[in-house]
Design goal:
By secondary structure, the chain is α/β, with parallel strands linked by helices. It is built from 33 helices and 24 strands. The strands form 6 sheets. A 9-stranded mixed β-sheet has the order 7-10-11-4-1-12-13-17-18. Belongs to the glycogen phosphorylase family.
């Protein structure tokens, strides 16, 4: 059950009963006629598909009502542009938000099937790489729940983030054809498509009015076809949508090739056109990969802007007041070419003057930055832009020329700083800095945590801040409690609802009411029972996925996130090796039993991240087989980390690892998911950890290591990792084991690059933080032995997690940046509720 002893609100009217009856009829209809099954051949997969189509019908009904409401009331609308939407599974989330879970469960039971097994047939829609894409998904849920007229725009990749298997300890990537069996809840908009151009050349001519006019004649045209994913709000009738574009050839075949017998060339050209939406993040180490990635970015924004303008013109005579009706949020720099595209439309198609067009463009766009690492800021070769988007290059040069004149006129920047803020990066090969374009072309720029927002105005955007101080603001990230508590942790949800009511589902700050139960022994016992049940579920999952048997009573210590050196999974595994050594040196010593779980994917071309996965796998293989260790230490790498796997890991976690080098993580959202599910955090003062500390106090979180100013100071004065290595005998022994092939007896030298990177560079200061991390882990182990103390801290963390809801984040965006309304709720016929008895 999604919530223990939960039930649908009592259906008070005959109309409501008829509504539920129609659900059963629709389901039976889809099972027989859409799926084509008789009662003798039905399988779990068929039940899933028929249920998906049935719920799709409900979603479309509400989506149509929502769209009619927007048309009648004509509110300002927000469009969220993102190249990534990590949606995960959708059907269960829709059942919860629509208030249909219990009814559907009873209906499926009536057919002799278990809904939990049925829902397992849904593939994760992994159309994103990590936190950025998952944040976008959470935002859409909150916009619908808050009744904000908000829509997502992205790309419908045929293949999402790759499937990961571990072979001989190493990551192997397999294609993720997430829609191979169809997507029953998807709405294919065959009547909505837009033409997108590439290549070609530009022309200018003098109009009859003596005005210089510009024309772009594309050399290649691709069609963008619309696919909608309905996004239902929780306990409201609002259903918005995420519109994803699929690339289609503008014509089935080039008839010139076809008629002259070159059938393969005709098919090849069609295939090349449709490659644009084929795969998330094509390998951009080659020129063709770079072209494809830039094509994806322009393809998405060009189609989306055409769609927005078409929608606007259906109810408004002109674009004069577009800024009063439309807001566009750029999720990182990937869609920032949209600034140049809107300018092109206004200048070349609408025949607006520059100043008028620029004023409208900057009023509409706002930009979210997601990194403080200069090397992570996106840039493109001018030569590539000139080839692929020649008119946009001209517009970008003009934007830059006018901006630099303005920047110089302020007299606030030196010439060196002028060079920093220029969109065009000079050098042997000129490049276009997309972050600079995004800052200049947006009216607001935000970071995603208080520390991050402070850092960007002191580092990467310092010069911009001197001339645009009013542009910069903070919007701390959040997560949606509907997925990350109600859906993923039904036991804890029910326990909380019984004590404080169900209002926390849409107002997470109400969790503060839990504080008055911290001293309630019965409540703490119930809390411990729910956590232990979740840990046992996780133990079964680990056994089925890896064959490893863990002690579900041990300290479950988890680090699940994208593999990157700055996230410092390597620091974690170094400490695991140190703990392993201590047990080996003294097999009878007391050690708090601990299960260390890793999960995450490394980018296919990221050699060092993949080597760290290999090291973790090899360490696990040796530690888990060692008879001296027994059940006191287990190491697990759970392959193919994804949203649905996170939903099963997080509820069973005791300790959340958030250990990035201070000043490198923009925010983090896994830290919030763990906090909301009653895990304690060990982490650096980085990203949103800073605000988590403020919420819970230092006695309820395990903070260690260098702070951001100390990191900068250490690097500025010259960091020498060997100084730290020589002072720490245990760390020396750990590194010796890695260098001398203790964990690679049959693969000598394989981990030498890891050894060399730490001893000679250590860019992310693992050695500098190792001792502090180790000592804090010892405190964690000691605290865990006092389960009553641990549970008090866990309850307090959940009680203080209210700030980290995307409902709060989206309210701030709506009020401070987008200026879009939060409409009154129109209650649906059925609502999800909790048994509060």
């Amino acid at each position: 059950m999604i919530v223990e002893n939960s039930r649908l609100l009592t259906l008070l009217s005959e109309e409501q009963k008829a509504d539920i009856g129609s659900l059963e009829k629709q389901f039976a209809h889809h099972l027989e006629y859409t799926i084509g099954k008789s009662k003798y051949t039905i399988k779990n997969e068929d039940i899933y598909k028929a249920l998906g189509h049935t719920i799709r019908d409900f979603l479309i009904d509400r989506m149509n009502v929502t769209n009619e409401r927007y048309r009648a009331e004509d509110p300002k609308q927000i469009y969220y542009f993102s190249l990534e939407f990590l949606m995960g599974r959708t059907l269960l989330n829709a059942l919860i938000n629509l208030g249909l879970y219990e009814v559907v469960k009873q209906m499926i039971d009536g057919f002799g099937f278990q809904i939990e097994e049925v829902l397992e047939f849904e593939m994760d829609a992994g159309l994103g790489n990590g936190g950025l894409g998952r944040l976008a998904a959470c935002f859409l849920d909150s916009m619908a729940t808050l009744n904000i007229p908000g829509f997502g725009y992205g790309i419908r990749y045929d293949y999402g983030i790759f499937n990961q298997i571990i072979a001989n300890g190493s990551q192997v990537e397999l294609p993720d054809h997430w829609d191979a069996d169809g997507v029953p809840y998807e709405v294919i908009r065959g009547d909505i498509s837009h033409s997108v151009g590439f290549y070609g050349y530009t022309e200018t001519k003098i109009s009859g009015k003596g005005k210089l006019e510009h024309y772009w004649i594309p050399g290649e045209t691709v069609l963008a076809s619309a696919h909608d994913c309905p996004i239902p709000g929780f306990n409201t009738s609002t259903v918005n949508y995420l519109r994803l574009w699929a690339a289609k050839s503008s014509e089935e075949f080039n008839l010139d090739y076809f008629n002259h017998g070159d059938y393969m060339k005709a098919v090849q050209d069609k295939s090349i056109s449709e490659n644009i939406s084929k795969v998330l993040y094509p390998n951009d180490t080659t020129e063709q990969g770079k072209i494809l990635r830039l094509k994806q970015q322009y393809f998405m924004v060009c189609a989306s802007l055409q769609d927005i303008l078409l929608h606007h013109r259906q109810t408004h005579a002109s674009l004069e007041y577009l800024g009063e009706k439309v807001a566009i949020q750029l999720n990182d720099t990937h869609p920032s070419i949209g600034i140049a595209e809107l300018m092109r439309v206004l200048l070349d198609v609408e025949d607006w003057e520059w100043d008028k067009a620029w004023a409208l463009t900057t009023k509409i766009f706002s930009y979210t930055n997601h990194t403080v690492l200069p090397e992570a800021l996106e840039s493109w070769k001018v030569s590539l832009f000139e080839k692929l988007l020649p008119r946009h290059l001209e517009i970008i040069y003009e934007i830059n020329h006018r901006f630099l004149n303005f920047a110089r006129s302020t007299k606030k920047l030196s010439e060196a700083e002028i060079s920093e803020v220029s969109i065009i990066q000079e050098g042997d090969e000129k490049r276009i800095r997309m972050a600079n374009l995004a800052v200049i072309g947006s009216h607001k720029v935000n970071g995603v945590a208080a520390l991050h927002s402070d850092l960007i105005i002191k580092t990467i955007f310092k010069s911009f801040h001197k001339i645009y101080p009013e542009k910069f603001n903070n919007k701390t990230n959040g997560i949606t409690p509907r997925r990350w508590l109600i859906q993923s942790n039904p036991g804890l949800t029910s326990l909380i609802a019984k004590r404080i009511g169900s209002g926390f589902a849409t107002d997470l700050y109400k969790l503060r009411d839990l504080e008055k139960f911290i001293d309630d022994a019965d409540f703490r016992n119930d809390w411990a029972r729910v956590k232990q049940q979740n840990k046992e579920i996780l133990a079964k999952l680990i056994k089925s996925e890896t064959g490893i048997t863990i002690d579900p009573h041990s300290l479950i210590d988890v680090q699940i996130k994208r593999f990157h050196e700055y996230k410092r999974q390597l620091l974690n595994v170094l400490r695991v090796i140190a703990l392993f050594r201590r047990i080996k040196e003294n097999p009878d010593r007391h050690v708090t039993p601990r299960t260390v779980i890793f999960g995450g994917k490394a980018a296919p071309g990221y050699y060092m991240a993949k080597l760290i996965i290999k090291l973790i796998s090899n360490v696990a293989n040796i530690v888990n087989r060692d008879p001296d260790v027994r059940d006191r230490l287990k190491v697990v790498f759970l392959p193919n980390y994804r949203v649905s796997l996170a939903e099963r890991i997080i509820p069973g976690t005791n300790l959340s690892e958030q250990i990035s080098t201070a000043g490198t993580e923009a925010s983090g959202t896994s830290n919030m998911k763990f906090m909301l599910n009653g895990a304690l955090t060990i982490g650096t003062l980085d990203g949103a950890n800073v605000e988590m500390l403020e919420e819970v106090g230092e006695e309820n979180i395990y903070i260690f290591g260098l702070k951001t100013p100390e990191v900068f100071e250490l690097k500025n004065r010259g960091y020498n990792p060997n100084e730290y290595l020589e002072k720490n005998e245990e760390l020396k022994r750990v590194m010796y084991m890695i260098r001398e092939n203790y964990f690679s007896p049959n693969e000598h030298g394989i981990f030498t690059p890891i050894y060399d990177s730490l001893v000679f560079n250590d860019n992310y200061l693992l050695f500098a933080d190792f001792d502090a991390y180790d000592q804090m882990q010892n405190i964690v182990a000691n605290d865990y032995l006092n389960q009553d103390l641990w549970n008090r801290k866990a309850i307090y963390n959940v009680a203080r997690s209210g700030k980290f809801s995307t409902d709060r984040t989206i309210r701030e965006y709506a009020e401070d940046i987008w200026k879009v309304p939060i409409l009154p709720t129109l209650a649906p016929k059925t609502q999800y509720s909790f048994d509060e008895k």
